[in-house]
Specification:
alpha/beta, nine-stranded mixed beta sheet, 11 helices, Dihydrodipicolinate Reductase, domain 2, 2 domains, six-stranded parallel beta sheet, Rossmann fold, 32% helix
Length: 358
């Protein structure tokens, strides 16, 4: 990228469901320009490249060798992120990864190490942090408008058909998806819960596969949480609920309650109830199918923030290190359910990468 042209050439890796959302977001960023895409499937990449008027690659080495490319946006199955990111970092390209960073803390740390060793920047997509009502919810908690927080709950009670899993060889597998409903559909909600409430100390959990018999991982999970601030909480996740429900996060304190339903905030403070009328709220995004209610607006906000941070040599809002926090909670939930004992998050995390106070 030349010094007289504050614009990053961005290439997308993978042409699956989420890739179009990334492409639409990148097209509208201040400092980004979509220049290319890579996929092993020739027919898919040709159609994608034609739609966005970009260069198509079926060779990853050729894709990385393109001098127009500055940033690689990885939109492939989670368990492939490390290999793609490692090669990109070695080629001197900055890396943006769709959530979660990888299928395990160990692989996530390896990805971070690769970027640090090669002197390139890294960010992870958690676009839900850029929803206006989520930002407002976090501000109200930080301003102690709820008084002493005593309890929190979060639920993702969605529906996915058997075909959703059977039509894709990687979904619901440990190797490529990292698990089931918790790591895939629910990790945004896990991330928001810990971002708004503060760090989770420990977790106990149950999980099972109840309505999708052919998948390897869980389609239902419940957990009890203890937060570092002393509050307690409950988390529920399912892809078996029909009709599906909006994602919810509720926080209860001695002076009121905040309820995020879908992306819309309900505020109950001082005997007054307010419901947000924010235009960027989408009540049922993702509940019935992966792209239901999905827009590119929140991705666009995060891309703008990431590229601005890259340009000014600052750490992006969701760095690789920051992204490990929600992944550690997921990994702890799985371990707690498998071993039927309480797991402390730091046992999973145990990493200097996550000592940030963000």
């Amino acid at each position: 990228m030349g010094s007289d042209q504050p614009e990053y050439g961005i290439g997308i890796v993978g042409c699956g469901n989420i890739s179009n959302t990334h492409a639409e977001a990148i097209k509208r960023t201040k400092r980004g320009k979509l220049v290319s895409a890579y996929s092993r499937t020739r027919q898919t990449i040709r159609a994608f490249a034609k739609e966005y008027d970009i260069t198509a690659f079926t060779s990853y080495d050729d894709f990385l060798a393109d001098t127009a490319l500055d940033v690689v946006a990885i939109c492939t199955p989670t368990g492939t992120h490390l290999d793609y990111a490692r090669a990109a970092a070695k080629a001197g390209k900055h890396v943006i990864v769709e959530k979660p960073i990888e299928v395990s803390i160990q692989r996530g740390k390896s990805l971070i190490n690769s970027c640090e060793t090669n002197g390139v920047k890294l960010a992870v997509i958690y676009q839900s942090r850029f929803i206006d009502d989520v930002t407002r919810m976090r501000q109200l908690v930080k301003q102690q408008k709820l008084g002493k927080i005593v309890m929190a709950s979060a639920s993702v009670k969605w529906f996915r058909s058997q075909e959703y899993y059977s039509d894709s060889s990687w979904r619901g597998t440990y190797k490529l998806d990292g698990g089931g409903v918790v790591i895939n559909q629910s990790i945004h909600t896990v991330d928001l819960l810990q971002w708004v409430m503060g760090r989770i100390d420990s977790i106990a959990a149950f999980k099972g596969t109840f309505t999708h018999g052919d998948i390897e991982a869980e389609d239902n999970a419940v957990a009890c949480l203890k937060f570092r601030n002393g509050a307690i909480g409950v988390f529920e996740a399912s892809t078996s609920i029909d009709p599906p429900q909006d994602r919810q996060i509720e926080i209860n304190g001695t002076k009121g309650t905040l309820l995020l339903k879908g992306d819309r905030l309900h505020t109950m403070l001082d005997d007054q109830t307010e419901v947000s009328d924010e235009s960027d709220s989408t009540e049922s995004a993702g509940a019935a199918s992966p792209l239901a209610g999905m827009t590119f607006q929140h991705h666009k906000k995060q891309y703008d923030a990431i590229l601005e941070a890259f340009f000014h040599d600052k750490v992006p809002t969701v760095s690789g290190a920051e992204s490990l926090r929600s992944l550690a909670i997921v990994e702890a939930l799985y371990k707690a359910a498998d071993e039927q004992q309480i797991i402390h998050i730091d046992e999973i995390l145990d990493s200097p990468y996550c000592n940030s106070s963000n």
